[in-house]
C-alpha cells in the first residue's frame, strides 16, 4: 500500500477513535451524576437528597459563600473549558504552520486527553465531585484541542491526494477551466471531510456497542464501578486506533520559524497580523465571526439538552449508550447520504451547510417551547430519543460541511493559523453561551429559560452565513492572499 494511502487511512482511523463518546458524553454524565448525589434540594434544605422520590427537581451545591445549581456548575465548567481553549488556540495554534510543530501539538493534547480519561477510575464517590469537575475540564479542553489540530491537517492532506494532484496538473496545463477546477477540488475536500466524519460516526457506533458488554450484565448485577470501566474501555479503543496516525503521518513540514520568533509568542503576533488582513479576506472573516456565534449556540444547546436528558434518565450510562447507538446509526447514514446527494447534484458546500443550520435553529426552538408547557420541549422520554436521531441525521453533516467551508476559505499554506481561528470560533467561542445560560438558570431556577437566548444566537449566525458569505469569491481571495505572502 502506498505511503500516502497509509497516511490517509491513519487520518481516518484516528477520527474513528476520537469520536467523543468518553470525553463529551460519559464524562459529563458522570460529573453531573456525582454532583447531583453530593447536592441537596434547596426546597427541603441542607441534608436532603436531590434524588429522593419527593424531591422538587432542583439541586444545589455549596459554592463560595452560597449555593449554585448543578446545571449551572456544569455549564460554568464548560465556560472555563472554552476559556482555556481560547488561550491555547491564540497562543500556539498558528505555530503549527511552522516546521513539524503542528504534528507534535496534536500528539501532546491527545496524550493529555488519554491520561485524563484513564484518571477517571478514581471517581468513585459523590464526595469527589470537585475532582471529576477538574478531570472533566481537562478532558474537555484536550479533546476540543484534538479536534482543532486534527482538522488543521485536513486542508494540506486534501491538497495532496492523488485526485487533487491530477486536478491541479490538468488546471496548470490548461485542460480544465479555473471554475471546473475549483468545483472539483471542493468536491474532493467534501469527500475527505465526509468520509472522515463517517469514520468518526462508525467509531461512535462501535464504541457504544462495546460498552453494552459491560453495561448489560450490570443491569441485573449492579457493579459500582461499571461507569468507570466504560470510560477506560472507550479510551483504550481510541488509544489503539489513534496511535496509527502518529506512525504513518507524512512529515510535510511547514516553513521554518522566522528568525527571532518563538513558538509561544508568534501566535499572538500572527493573530494580530491575520486580523489586519480582513480587508483582503472579508468573506473568511465574516464566516469566522458568524461561525463564532453559531458554534456557541449549538455547543451550548447540546450541553443544555444533555443536562435535561441526564436528569430525565437518572444518569444511566446504559440508557445513554442506547441513545448514542441511535445517534451513531443516524449519523453514519446521514453523512453518506448527504455526500451522495451533494456529489450527484454537485450542490455547493454552502447550500448543504445551510440545510443543517435550519435544524440547528429548530433544536433550540423546540427547547424554548418547554418553558410554557410540559407536553413538549424536552420534557418527555420520546423527545430525547427523537433528538438523538435528528441530531445524528443533521449535525454530523453540519460538522463536515463547516470544516469544508473553512478549508475553502483558508489561504493555502496557512492552515494552522486559520484553523486555529476556526477552533477559536468552534470551541473557544462557547465560553460565552455557557456563562450567559448558567446565569439565566441560576437566576430563574429553570433549565429551559436558556433556550430563547440560544435560539436567537443560532438564528442570527445562520442568516449571516447564508446572506453575507460568498464562498467562491472568498476562496479566490484566500489563494491570491497566500500567493502574495510568499513573494
TrEMBL record:
<dbReference type="GO" id="GO:0005774">
    <property type="term" value="C:vacuolar membrane"/>
</dbReference>
<feature type="transmembrane region" description="Helical">
    <location>
        <begin position="384"/>
        <end position="401"/>
    </location>
</feature>
<keyword id="KW-1133">Transmembrane helix</keyword>
<feature type="transmembrane region" description="Helical">
    <location>
        <begin position="421"/>
        <end position="441"/>
    </location>
</feature>
<dbReference type="InterPro" id="IPR024671">
    <property type="entry name" value="Atg22-like"/>
</dbReference>
<dbReference type="GO" id="GO:0006914">
    <property type="term" value="P:autophagy"/>
</dbReference>
<feature type="transmembrane region" description="Helical">
    <location>
        <begin position="353"/>
        <end position="372"/>
    </location>
</feature>
<feature type="transmembrane region" description="Helical">
    <location>
        <begin position="313"/>
        <end position="341"/>
    </location>
</feature>
<comment type="function">
    <text>Vacuolar effluxer which mediate the efflux of amino acids resulting from autophagic degradation. The release of autophagic amino acids allows the maintenance of protein synthesis and viability during nitrogen starvation.</text>
</comment>
<dbReference type="InterPro" id="IPR050495">
    <property type="entry name" value="ATG22/LtaA_families"/>
</dbReference>
<feature type="transmembrane region" description="Helical">
    <location>
        <begin position="104"/>
        <end position="125"/>
    </location>
</feature>
<dbReference type="GO" id="GO:0032974">
    <property type="term" value="P:amino acid transmembrane export from vacuole"/>
</dbReference>
<feature type="transmembrane region" description="Helical">
    <location>
        <begin position="131"/>
        <end position="158"/>
    </location>
</feature>
<protein>
    <recommendedName>
        <fullName>Autophagy-related protein</fullName>
    </recommendedName>
</protein>
<feature type="transmembrane region" description="Helical">
    <location>
        <begin position="70"/>
        <end position="92"/>
    </location>
</feature>
<keyword id="KW-0472">Membrane</keyword>
<keyword id="KW-0812">Transmembrane</keyword>
<dbReference type="Pfam" id="PF11700">
    <property type="entry name" value="ATG22"/>
</dbReference>
<keyword id="KW-0813">Transport</keyword>
<feature type="transmembrane region" description="Helical">
    <location>
        <begin position="285"/>
        <end position="307"/>
    </location>
</feature>
<feature type="transmembrane region" description="Helical">
    <location>
        <begin position="453"/>
        <end position="469"/>
    </location>
</feature>
<keyword id="KW-0072">Autophagy</keyword>
<feature type="transmembrane region" description="Helical">
    <location>
        <begin position="229"/>
        <end position="248"/>
    </location>
</feature>
<keyword id="KW-0029">Amino-acid transport</keyword>
<dbReference type="InterPro" id="IPR044738">
    <property type="entry name" value="Atg22"/>
</dbReference>
<keyword id="KW-0926">Vacuole</keyword>
<comment type="similarity">
    <text>Belongs to the ATG22 family.</text>
</comment>
<dbReference type="InterPro" id="IPR036259">
    <property type="entry name" value="MFS_trans_sf"/>
</dbReference>
Amino acid at each position: 500500500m502506498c505511503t500516502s494511502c497509509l497516511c490517509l487511512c491513519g487520518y481516518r482511523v484516528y477520527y474513528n477513535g476520537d469520536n467523543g463518546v468518553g470525553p463529551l458524553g460519559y464524562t459529563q454524565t458522570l460529573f453531573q451524576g456525582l454532583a447531583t448525589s453530593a447536592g441537596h434540594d434547596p426546597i427541603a434544605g441542607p441534608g436532603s437528597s436531590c434524588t429522593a422520590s419527593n424531591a422538587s427537581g432542583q439541586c444545589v451545591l455549596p459554592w463560595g459563600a452560597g449555593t449554585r445549581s448543578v446545571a449551572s456548575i456544569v455549564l460554568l465548567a464548560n465556560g472555563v473549558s472554552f476559556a482555556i481553549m481560547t488561550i491555547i488556540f491564540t497562543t500556539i495554534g498558528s505555530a503549527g504552520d511552522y516546521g513539524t510543530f503542528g504534528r507534535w501539538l496534536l500528539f501532546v493534547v491527545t496524550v493529555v486527553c488519554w491520561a485524563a480519561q484513564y484518571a477517571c477510575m478514581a471517581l468513585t464517590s459523590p464526595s469527589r465531585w470537585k475532582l471529576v469537575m477538574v478531570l472533566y475540564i481537562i478532558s474537555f479542553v484536550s479533546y476540543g484541542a484534538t479536534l482543532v489540530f486534527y482538522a488543521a491537517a485536513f486542508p494540506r492532506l486534501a491538497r495532496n491526494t492523488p485526485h487533487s494532484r491530477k486536478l491541479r496538473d490538468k488546471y496548470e496545463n490548461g485542460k480544465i477551466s479555473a471554475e471546473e477546477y475549483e468545483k472539483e477540488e471542493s468536491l474532493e475536500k467534501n469527500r475527505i471531510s465526509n468520509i472522515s466524519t463517517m469514520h468518526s460516526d462508525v467509531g461512535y457506533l462501535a464504541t457504544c456497542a462495546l460498552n453494552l458488554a459491560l453495561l448489560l450484565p450490570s443491569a441485573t448485577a449492579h457493579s459500582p464501578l461499571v461507569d468507570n470501566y466504560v470510560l477506560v474501555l472507550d479510551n483504550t479503543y481510541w488509544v489503539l486506533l489513534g496511535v496509527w496516525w502518529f506512525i504513518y503521518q507524512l512529515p510535510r513540514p511547514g516553513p521554518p520559524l522566522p528568525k527571532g520568533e518563538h513558538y509561544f509568542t508568534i501566535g499572538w503576533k500572527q493573530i494580530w497580523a491575520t486580523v489586519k488582513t480582513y480587508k483582503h479576506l472579508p468573506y473568511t472573516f465574516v464566516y469566522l465571526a458568524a461561525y463564532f456565534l453559531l458554534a456557541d449556540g449549538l455547543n451550548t444547546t447540546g450541553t443544555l439538552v444533555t443536562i435535561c436528558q441526564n436528569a430525565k434518565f437518572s444518569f444511566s450510562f446504559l440508557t445513554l449508550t442506547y441513545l448514542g447507538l441511535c445517534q451513531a446509526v443516524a449519523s453514519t447514514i446521514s453523512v453518506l447520504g448527504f455526500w451522495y446527494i451533494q456529489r450527484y447534484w454537485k450542490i455547493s458546500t454552502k447550500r448543504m451547510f445551510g440545510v443543517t443550520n435550519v435544524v440547528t435553529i429548530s433544536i433550540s426552538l423546540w427547547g424554548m417551547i418547554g418553558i410554557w408547557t410540559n407536553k413538549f420541549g424536552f420534557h418527555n422520554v420520546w423527545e430525547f430519543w427523537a433528538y438523538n436521531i435528528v441530531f445524528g441525521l443533521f449535525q454530523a453533516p453540519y460538522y463536515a460541511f463547516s470544516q469544508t467551508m473553512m478549508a475553502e476559505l483558508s489561504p493555502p499554506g496557512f492552515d494552522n493559523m486559520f484553523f486555529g481561528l476556526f477552533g477559536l470560533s468552534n470551541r473557544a467561542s462557547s465560553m460565552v453561551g455557557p456563562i450567559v445560560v448558567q446565569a439565566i438558570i441560576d437566576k430563574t431556577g429553570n433549565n429551559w429559560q436558556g433556550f430563547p437566548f440560544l435560539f436567537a444566537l443560532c438564528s442570527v449566525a445562520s442568516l449571516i452565513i447564508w446572506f453575507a458569505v460568498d464562498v467562491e469569491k472568498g476562496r479566490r481571495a484566500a489563494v491570491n492572499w497566500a500567493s502574495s505572502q510568499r513573494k
